[in-house]
Amino acid sequence: MGAMPRRLGASLRVVAATVVLVVSLGAGTAVAVPPPPPNPSDDQLDSTRAKANAQATQVGRLTNQVAQAEARLMELQADVELKMEDANKALVDLQTAQGEAAQAKADAEAAKAAADSASQAIDDAREDLDEFAAGSYRQGSTIGSMSAYLGAKSPEDLLARAELLNAVAGSELDVLDDLEVARTDKANKDSAARAALDLANEKEAQAQSAKEAADAATAAARQAQQDGAAQAQRIEAQKASAESQLIAAQSAVSGLESQRKRYQDWLAAKQREDALKAQQAAESAGGGGGGRPVAAPSSGSARSVINRALSQLGVPYAWGGGNAYGPTRGIRDGGVADMYGDYNKIGFDCSGLMIYAFAAAGYRLPHYSGYQAHAGRRVPLSQKAPGDMLFWASGGRIHHVALYIGNGQMVEAPHSGARVRIASVRYGGIVPYATRML
Fold this sequence. Notes:
two-stranded antiparallel sheet; endopeptidase fold (from Nostoc punctiforme); 9% strand; 6-stranded antiparallel sheet; Helix Hairpins; 62% helix
């Protein structure tokens, strides 16, 4: 470290001299008060305070913008999750339609094969019948061939053989009719199967279109979330810069106020010295005493829960992470958390941080914010107290929880890509009650 600045060294010497003076006066020994320290003017104090107040206003405005941006991120995250579910549904519908189309195609091919087989059988039967008819025509009768009558031993035998040939011809015609009916039935089935195939193909095309639309909506939602996250980071950077300027402005105010305080201390010491000199001859002893105010103790259980949560500031967010003993490895969600690599991080999600915090008071909370909302007594949000849990919902479903620590502040594990932090209470989407465990 370099040499102490001359002005700072002089200031410290003044403070040291003032302390020595106070101690000496308390002991009843008169010691000369040193020369007065610098005394800033009221204009200087007012000017620096005005700058600090203006910077504090800027920080407050940016803090509100950060809270709004983060609330919007929560909405975008919920929208991404809903779009992902739509995409999953579209994928299931597409797979079902593809299965139905494949079955319809197989049925259509089978029906066509059966129809082709029936047509071939009819063609074969018709060819046999045509040969029979041709033979009958050549013989001038319906008996088909004279060879059928060779060997007849009597007119009765000849008549029986003629009736037999007529019966054969009739049976051939009946078979032909049956085959024709079968071919018509198979052709109808083939037509129905092809119609079913056309319908299945149409459903498959519709399902494919729905899947593509759902994927596009999911991609758009993710892009919107990424854009929102980038905007939130920009505002956060502006806020950090404004906070640095606020610290500098407050430091300037503090410096001038410290100078004014030192001057007032010097003035009081000078007045005491004058009074001591005036009374020294008449007083033989002096003393005094005084007490110091004692702050009212806060609730031990609430303080222990809050302190335990605050001990994890800066720990990464990990979806599914955290238990009663500390941060744990996150798990996969098939979406946003996976995109941020939460399954490779050791940390907390919002409900996991509550589990860890309330373990300090002996509570065992479930790892689900919806159940945590019912774990204790509900009080109106306007009556929230340090140690209460606050919840946010979208569409009637709770999706986030944080721990109220007082003065409009809360500690939370906000979302993937962030860390455990202290933030101002966000009232957008907040449920109208707090859950009190303690």
